[in-house]
Amino acid sequence: MELSTQLGKEINKKLDKATSFDEVALILKEYSEYELKGSQLGRAFEKMFVKEQGFSLPITMQQLQQYHHSFYTTNGGDWCRSNQSYLGKKYNIERIKSGGRISAVKIDGFNKKTKINQAIRADILKTIQTKKCVILDISSNIECDHKDGMKDDWRLNDKSFQKLDDFQPLSKTANDAKRGHCKKCREQGIRYDARKLGYSEAYVLGSAKTKTCVGCYWYDPKEFNRMISKDFKKTDK
Fold first, then answer.
1. Can you state the angle between helices 21-30 and 5-17, rounded to 10 degrees?
2. What does R_g of the chain's alpha carbons equal in angstroms?
3. What is the mean pLDDT of residues 128-144?
4. Mean pLDDT for the chain overall
5. Domain count, the chain
6. Which residue of 46, 58, 128, 230 lies most exposed, with the fewest beta carbons within 10 A?
7. Phi and psi for 145 in degrees, rounded to 5?
8. CA angle, 94 as apex, 91 and 96 as ends, to 5°?
């Protein structure tokens, strides 16, 4: 059954208000006879599968069709197109193909295009500069570092939206090293591999080609260390 513009808007409002996987699944079931469009399908996918930091597991088309037949797509995949769709405007989308058709969809971080400026709110700058370097644990030559080395989070353009957690204290030596690795990442499209530092994993979120900094060692070394070692158990030999 064809979806009217008005009904599409009503479904969007319901999906925007939904707060759980089951609630979204019920909405999709309620409108199972209709041909849903990208704005509805994108919202549903986001609410059901995308985590807070902007990542999802690969979700197969077979899985999605259990919730609504309109998820079925061939090469076009209008509801999961990069940049143009509801999802694409917000996230980096990986469309996994098999036999020429899209077999699964994966969200790989937030899609951030706007370059940010370097201005940091005075109170944040002052607080950060009183802390020790999160890598070297020293207090000398501390710089206030933007965690986001891509420099593309539009929110940081407005100082009123900046949060203390957007920044971290790095010594000049550590910050110079980060700048070099971030510059190389931006130029080559390959994120820094933390295994070069002896870690067991390259990233705690995403992959080498993920287009966002979250999950990379340099984004938040302290959090990276916490996540990579959370299941560590000391053994005495």
1. 160
2. 21
3. 96
4. 90
5. 2
6. 230
7. -100, 135
8. 155
